[in-house]
Automatic annotation (TrEMBL):
It comes from the Bacteria. Pfam families: NifT (PF06988). It comes from Mesorhizobium hawassense. One of its GO terms (biological process) is nitrogen fixation. InterPro entries: NifT (IPR009727), NifT/FixU_barrel-like_dom_sf (IPR024044). This is Putative nitrogen fixation protein NifT.
Length: 70
């Protein structure tokens, strides 16, 4: 699914246009963010693609959902 990752005043946020859902990112598997999973406040876990550490935000990426209900 397409996910836009961006920085906000409160931290990182993920927006899923198809679901019209924006949630704060509350957990990251990899310190550099890319190539691991992230956890959203609503419980969703998404696997992000492996991108360079200095990838500028905001960016839209193809992520894979690995847990939580729709």
């Amino acid at each position: 699914m397409k996910v836009m990752i961006r920085k906000t005043k409160a931290g990182l946020s993920a927006y899923v246009p198809k679901k019209d859902l924006e949630e704060p990112i509350i957990g990251v598997e990899n310190e550099e963010l890319w190539g691991g999973s992230i956890t959203l406040r609503n419980g969703w876990r998404l696997v992000l693609p492996d991108l360079p550490r200095d990838t500028p935000l905001p960016i839209t990426v193809e992520a894979r959902k690995i847990s939580a209900e729709d």
